[in-house]
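ERR on first pass: missing label on line 2. Operator R.T. fixed the label and resubmitted. Corrected input:
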Amino acid sequence: NAGVTQTPKFRVLKTGQSMTLLCAQDMNHEYMYWYRQDPGMGLRLIHYSVGEGTTAKGEVPDGYNVSRLKKQNFLLGLESAAPSQTSVYFCASSPRGSSGANVLTFGAGSRLTVL
Amino acid sequence: AQSVTQLGSHVSVSEGALVLLRCNYSSSVPPYLFWYVQYPNQGLQLLLKYTSAATLVKGINGFEAEFKKSETSFHLTKPSAHMSDAAEYFCAVSDENNRLAFGKGNQVVVIP
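pass 2 clean. output:
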């Protein structure tokens, strides 16, 4: 019972490089989310998806792109990494509906460092 | 927009003493409120949630929280701290798309 799996767990990039973080869930959840966690800032929503083929911006979307081509996968891309994107990234998923009462299941996180 | 406020980034508590973490929310509609815990180098784990069924909510590991509409608060408590409670705790409020808005977190240190 894997839940939410993120790859890679760690990555070091140079400024300007690109990369993709992969999130996979095996719970048949409709909704998926990408958050970033920075010290003293809590978690902030980057992008989210309410179903296959749909994505929407969250609180801090600049510099990131996402895709949800398959229901179980949610990809987060950095086209040109910047040091300000050094962070820990968390993917989460939840079932549809219940108007906000559903619990999110989180992955273990991906630590990204941009030099 | 809905939001939550957690004061005091670091909280030190003696082993066996009361743990109290404060959370105040801002919401134009009846909120769904959550407390999550993050142990070192791990993801977030649900402690408890309020969804209007009862104002006193019991969670895992002996934690509970009370929803007080008049004070717009959802404070987290545990009567007796254990060393294993050392972690970061986040209060969050959810919208209709289950998007969570988090507080800045409380890092709890338990002193032997």
